[in-house]
Amino acid sequence: MSQQIQTINTLVLPDQTKPFFRICVQQTICENVRDLFRFKFHHSPPEEPIHLVAYYDAKDSVTLPVCYIHFYEWQGCLLCGGACVDQRVLKQMSQEERASMRNAGGPYYLALSSAFNHFQNKTIGVFGYCGDPLSERISLSAGFQKTHFKHVIAWWSSTVQDTEKLALIEKIHELGPF
């Protein structure tokens, strides 16, 4: 089975034509992305789609995953989790590349906000379960909103009625951490 990869956003330095940072949606997960997930969480990542991977395309033609987020389809929505950033890859970037990345909001912000843009007309909303203060701050700045449940955050892609939003949030809360 071939790997289907769709690039949904890129970053290019002002004096370059080739992007050094690509955000991709993938149906299957690559081994180097599995390695990043295992490094961060000490267990294997989910295999089922959807995988959002931000890649660093180094000048020496090596492509490395720098950020990963998993999205799981659930009742017309997406559950977002397993987000991680590889600081080791960020350290391999040039000062100019790191500055460009920082000025654009950082790899997690860029990946998440690009995902929201990509999923705009494809889902009712996206839910996250977030207990990390830094991740929550970035998630909120990218477009997530707090809910009345601790750790449950939501992003809405359309004008969903408040009663429907509340019902979905209740169901998400009942799921527990994901």
Structural description of this entry:
By secondary structure, the protein is an alpha+beta fold. The chain has a single domain (5-175), classed as Aminopeptidase. Helix content is 35%, strand content 30%. The protein has six helices and eight strands; from the N terminus they run E-E-H-E-E-E-H-H-H-E-H-E-E-H. An eight-stranded mixed beta sheet has the order 1-2-3-4-5-6-8-7, with helices on both faces. Helix 4 crosses helix 5 (133-142). The longest helix has 14 residues, at 162-175.
Defining key terms:
alpha+beta, Aminopeptidase, eight-stranded mixed β-sheet, 6 helices, 178 residues, 8 strands
Q: What topology emerges from the helices and strands here?
A:
Layout: E1 5-11, E2 21-26, H1 31-41, E3 51-57, E4 63-74, E5 77-85, H2 87-92, H3 95-103, H4 107-119, E6 125-129, H5 133-142, E7 145-146, E8 152-156, H6 162-175
Parallel strand pairs: 5-6
Antiparallel strand pairs: 1-2, 2-3, 3-4, 4-5, 6-8, 7-8
Helix pairs in contact: 4-5
Overall structural class, as computed from helix and strand content, comes to alpha+beta
Strand numbers in spatial order across the main sheet:
1-2-3-4-5-6-8-7
Low-confidence stretches: none
Mean pLDDT: 93
CATH topology: Aminopeptidase
Percent strand equals 25-35%
Number of DSSP helical runs: 6
Tell me the span between the first and last alpha carbons: 28 Å
Largest sheet: 8 strands, mixed
Overall radius of gyration:
16 Å
Query: What does the overall shape look like?
Result: globular
The domain tally reads 1
Which architecture would the CATH scheme give at its second level?
Answer: 3-Layer(aba) Sandwich
Q: What oligomeric state best describes the polypeptide chains here?
A: single chain
What's the CATH H-level superfamily name? Gcn5-related N-acetyltransferase (GNAT)
